[in-house]
Amino acid sequence: MVSEALTKAYGERVILKDVDLTIGQQEIVCLLGPSGAGKTTLLNMLIGTEEADTGTIHRSTDRIGYVFQEDRLLPWLTLFENIRLVDDTRPDEQIYRCLRNVSLNGYENMKPRQMSGGMRQRGAIARALFYGGHLLFLDEPFKSLDEKLRYDMLHLVRRLREQENLSVLFVTHDMDEALCVADRVLILSGQPAGISGTYDLRPYRHDGTIDEADEFRLKRTLRAALYA
Asked: Which of helix, strand or coil describes residue 185?
């Protein structure tokens, strides 16, 4: 996916201006910005639920899996039924495959109230995988989870990227999440907001992790870009 010079205003207030963004094949791009910077608005434009005032978007697929800040599972349906709801044309085995991929095989007949917060968010990821093919958007989906579970979920995203050949756009205001999951970090900041910096983390990763000294330096760099 490629976007060029996206601008969005509500009335006279310009929220986003001249935003360029590229997501490569099997790449995890993290959009890092403070609360209220326009991250969700940008996601909505990229997915097509809001129109940009100016600019262009080139999508490689019409189907984009989207995981929201809340799991949005319907409480009166089972997990299987919640996933089936987004596409009733595909075989059941594809649903079971998505559930296996997020370690929820055997839980397909449970209803959301019977599941923990982490299980519900894994269910939301399974639903997005079932719908979305090879492009996945995540809008701060783990911020309500405890720290251990949050990092388990972030590592799940990295595993699924390899396993399912996914390209991922991960939106967060949390620097630790960005450093844990991203191949590249884009800083969205300013008023109106734009991409103020791009940082490739792949040279710093060794066996998937960033060592403590590099992490400290990267945090300092990202913090300076966020609040310049």
From this structure: strand
Angle subtended by helix axes 117-132 and 147-164, to nearest 10: 20
Query: Side chain identity at 175, as an amino acid letter?
Result: M
H helix runs in 20-68, sequence order: 39-47
Amino acid 139: pLDDT: 92
pLDDT value of position 30: 96
pLDDT tens for 146-173 read 888 888 889 889 988 988 889 999 999 8
Confidence of residue 227 (pLDDT cuts 50, 70, 90): confident
Token readout for 82 is 């919640």
Kindly report whether the peptide bond that precedes residue 34 is cis, defined as omega within 30 degrees of 0. no
End-to-end CA distance of the chain: 28
Q: Is the peptide bond before 75 cis (omega within 30 degrees of 0)?
A: no
